[in-house]
Structure formats: C-alpha cells, structure tokens
Amino acid sequence: MYKARISGVGHYVPPKVVSNEDLSKLMDTSNEWIIERTGIQERRFADPKTDTTSVMGSKAAKVALERAGIEASDLDFIIFATLSPDYYFPGPGVMVQEQLGIPEIGALDVRNQCSGFVYSLSVADQFIRSGMYQRILVIGSELHSGGLDFTTRGRNVSVIFGDGAGAAIVERAPEGHSGILSTHLHSEGKHAKELALIEPSTSHWVDRLIEEGGSDDPAYHPYMNGNFVFKHAVTRFQEVIYEALKHNGKEASDIDLLIPHQANLRISQFIQGKMKLRDDQVMNNIMRYGNTTAASIPIAWSEAWEEGRLKEGDLICLAAFGSGFTWASALLYW
Ligand code: UT7
After folding, report:
1. CATH superfamily of 180-333
2. Structural domain boundaries in the chain
3. Stretch 151-165: mean pLDDT
4. What global pTM score does this model have?
5. How far is ligand 1, taken at its centre, from the CA of residue 299, in Å?
6. Is 33 a pocket residue for ligand 1 (Cβ < 6 Å)?
7. 37 alpha carbon to ligand 1 midpoint, in Å?
8. How many Cα atoms are found within 13 Å in the side-chain-facing hemisphere of 83?
9. C-alpha angle 90/96/97, rounded to 5°?
10. Ligand 1 within 6 A of 39 CB?
11. Which stretches of 111-217 are DSSP H helices?
C-alpha cells in the first residue's frame, strides 16, 4: 500500500476587502458585535465578472502547483469541494481542467460544505493509497457574497461568510515519509435544514421563484440556526480530533499545528482551551477572511506555510464541522 503526502498548498483571495463598517452601512449590525461574537474584522468579496468559484480555484491551484514544483500536466485527477459552484451543473472540477489546460483527466466535485476539503483530502488519500493515481489536485473554493441576504433579516449569516479559494497537491509519498496518517468522516442528516440554502432546488425551481416575487423569499438565501450549529460544532470538533489522535496513538500535545475550519474564532478558542493547546499550536485567520467554508482550511494552511509555521515532520491536524451536518478530521505529517 502506498502513502500520500501534501507537496504544496496555495491560496487566492479576491482583492476587494469588506470591513465590518461596510456591512453596518447595509444592515443593523456593528463592528463591535461582529468582532465580539465571531472574531471577524474583514472578509473578501469577489467580482464574479473576473473571479468565479472555479477561476479562484484555478488561481489557488497554480500557486499550489508551483510550490509543489510540478506542472498542471503532471496531475492525474482533480477534486473540487464547494457549496457555491459556478453553475448548478456541471460542477467546477471540469472548469479547472479546462482553465489549467490539463489533459482529459477525471474531475470529481464534492458537496460537503465546511467539511468539503477534508472529505476531498480523504478521497485523494484513498486513490493514492490504492495506487490508482499519483498526483491529485484538491481545491476548496467559495463565492458566497453573491447569494447572501444583506438586509438586517440575514445579518446573523451575512456578516460571517467571505469568498476565496485554497488548494493542495496530494502526491504519492516517497519511501519513509509517513504522509497522511488517517482521515475520519461523519454526517448527521437529521440536521440538514439547520444550516442550508434550500432554494432554488429540484423541489422548488426558479419559475416558482419568479411567480412568488423573486429573491426576497428568505428560502433563497442561506439559513443558519446559529446557536444550535455552534453547540454541535464545539462538540463535534473535539470528538473528531480526539478520534484521529486515538486512532494513531497520539495526544493533543503531539499536534504541532491544528488547522480548524474557520467557522467562528470563539469556536476555535473554545476547542483550544478544552484541548489545552498553546497559541502556536492553532492556526486562526478568520479575522481577515471570515468563514470561507470549503476554502477555509486550505487558505489557513497556505498562510501558515507562508508564515513559516510548518517544518518538515510536523504533525498537522485538520478538523471541520458544518452544514449537513458533516464533520471530519485528518492527521498527517508535513
Ligand atoms: O461554518 C459552519 C459552521 N458554522 C458555525 O459553526 C457558526 C455557528 N454559529 C455562530 O457562529 C453564532 O451562532 C453566530 C455568530 C451566527 C451568532 O452568534 P450568537 O452569539 O449565537 O448570537 P445569536 O444568534 O444568539 O443572537 C444574539 C442577538 C440576537 O438579538 P436578540 O434576540 O438577543 O435581541 C440577534 O438578533 O444578536 C442579534 N444578532 C445580531 N446583532 C448585530 C444576530 N446577528 C447580528 C448581527 N449584528 N450581525
């Protein structure tokens, strides 16, 4: 059996910075409320004329490819995680194949929201372990800003989310490299509607949207039962991190860097406190980008690399929780 390792991570965020002050001009909110409840100071919003979900993904992929020291033509497979695809179908994986000018390799789209990147990494890991592929591009990218409700009605959701993309190159590990140790995936569909964008969908097509008076219907914007999601998040994050540690005979103190999905700074700080981790053991960048869903872990990972926080042989733990509910973790050596 082969092992997989990450040979490069990269990210791209659109240039437009949107501050909490900017949002407070659109709805009844304040810089103080957003910072106190979420830790977010600013986020990026994409211009969809130049930066679609797939285009941002391709930009992040180019950075990851360069850092891995390989060409797009060296890739065997693409996995793209998003909840905000360019089109209802086809998914953005095939668009990356076209945009990067990659030969006709397979492209898989993953729909697991905030856990999408870790789920994708797990799929890539299995393909490499089995020997089917040697070099896989994994992307998480989101363009949330086009679909948020920027009235006071939508404020508990719209102040949180931001746009951006991250990517990783997952390669067959050289002999002796431990690479990805394990991944752990979970879901609980009974809570599907607690954090969801319900319409338009196969149960409610766009013609009915027009009949019913357009996008003023709250069902056409993401909904989140914030407190309920928060309580589940703090439990599931810890559970799935400890599951990964136990599976590999490790302790929390063995983690060199925990890269949690950037859902809310209070969630990350709560987990850090419970697990007794030092500040240097946890990566947080939600302050600058908000919650970028499937993109948040690879963006944070890429920034951690840029900041020199990763050394060869470091033990990295990834963990995510979100809509579905889905939650997941990965433990790996850098
Ligand atoms: O990434 C996927 C997973 N996502 C998460 O894990 C997110 C989990 N949830 C959260 O992060 C938090 O629940 C939120 C940040 C969404 C909300 O924070 P909260 O502390 O749970 O606030 P709340 O929803 O309980 O609302 C408290 C008050 C309410 O007013 P009243 O009823 O007390 O008068 C809200 O209407 O804050 C009000 N509120 C706001 N006020 C100013 C809600 N959103 C805002 C806002 N600005 N943006």
Report:
1. Thiolase/Chalcone synthase (3.40.47.10)
2. 4-172, 180-333
3. 96
4. 0.96
5. 24
6. yes
7. 7
8. 28
9. 95
10. no
11. 116-130, 155-158, 206-211
